[in-house]
Amino acid sequence: MKYRQDRINESVAQTVGEIFRSVKDPRISSGFVTVNAASVTKDLKYANIYFGVLCGEIEEVEKGLKSANGYIRRELALRLNLRVTPELNFIYDNSAEHGARIASILKTLDIPSEDNADE
Predict the structure, then answer these.
(1) How many whole angstroms separate alpha carbon 41 and alpha carbon 52?
(2) What is this structure's pTM?
(3) Which residues partner with 35 through β-bridges?
(4) How far is it, in rounded angstroms, from Cα 50 to Cα 47?
(5) pLDDT classification of 25: cutoffs 50, 70, 90
(6) How do beta strands 33-40 and 87-92 pair?
(7) Which helix (H) or strand (E) segment is 87 a member of?
(8) What share of the chain is helix, strand, coil (3-state, %, to 5)?
(9) Long-range contacts for 71-75 (Cβ within 8 Å, ≥24 apart)?
């Protein structure tokens, strides 16, 4: 049963990402919005869509997603063959920014390579 749930989550995330590219709202299309993950409940009634913003104001993108929610849900129903089309809840996910920050911190550390450690 867990495998089916994972497959549904992955399908919803991928399809919503494709739908984002067709949304005409400039708050979404100009912000380069990406879908990081989706979490659909077992009864398929609700779905949390975790998104990231590459450029643009997060608040404006959230407003755009809220106004385009009906369109995105309708397109999701047309593209995926699910018994129930879930209600969508968009949640901002800053994991990409967090990862980039960790990478920049790691670059600043002075860690000797293993080649130099033998000498």
Answers:
(1) 21
(2) 0.78
(3) 51
(4) 10
(5) confident
(6) unpaired
(7) strand 87-92
(8) 55, 20, 30
(9) 71/23, 72/16, 72/19, 72/20, 72/23, 75/19, 75/22
